[in-house]
Amino acid sequence: MAQPSDEPSDEPSGESAHRRPEPSGRGWPLLGPVVAALFVAYFLLPEHLLGPERPVLSWTVFGAALSAIALLLVKHMRDALFDRPGTVVALVSLMCLSVLLFSSAYFVMSHHPGEFTGLRTRLDALYFALLTLATLSYGDITPHGQSVRLVILLQILYTLVFLTAAATALTGKLRRSAASRPPRGTRPPRRTGKRGPG
């Protein structure tokens, strides 16, 4: 009767099997097309469906979309801690989507008199959202209305809580993936099966 061996097994078990880094190239080809599709949708979606004429619907859609993105960010941040596949593409896409959502809100609100000075196009709105994300201001676009200032405060808080945490999870995952790659020119060791006494 074969006795159990005290030597450590080469096979991962338990939690370590779930923390195995994913292959570095998995999912990366999707990142460019997904982000490009988000930006194309941002520039093509009609803005007349929402706006000052439908304030309740506009705020409801904005709040629901923001909450859904936050929940998905938290889920994929947790997945990134366990090195599950697809988290890099998901986190980058959701971070871009949150910026585009705030940009869309600014563009829709710019149609209401007295909310903005200097914001006229979708590109202006995206520019302003990125400046707010980076905590910069050039003074060429000025918010005046109380509603738009509320959205700016929401974006700052959203960035501090969710986007900063998502960026931290993303960089941690990328570091672990880079550390798990074998050096160039080396081959991964072959696994040899050990047989017990016959």
From TrEMBL:
User: Per the UniProt record, which residue ranges are transmembrane?
Assistant: 27-45, 57-74, 86-109, 150-171
Kindly give the Pfam families that the UniProt entry links to this protein.
Ion_trans_2
Chain residue ranges for the region called Disordered: 1-25, 174-198
What's the superkingdom here? Answer: Bacteria
What keywords are annotated for this sequence in UniProt? Answer: Ion channel, Ion transport, Membrane, Transmembrane, Transmembrane helix, Transport
**Swiss-Prot/TrEMBL GO biological process terms:** monoatomic ion transmembrane transport
Q: Which residues form the Potassium channel domain?
A: 95-173
Compositionally biased, Basic residues: which spans?
A: 187-198
> InterPro entries of this UniProt entry?
K_chnl_dom
**Protein name, entry field:** Two pore domain potassium channel family protein
Its lineage opens with:
Bacteria, Bacillati, Actinomycetota, Actinomycetes, Kitasatosporales
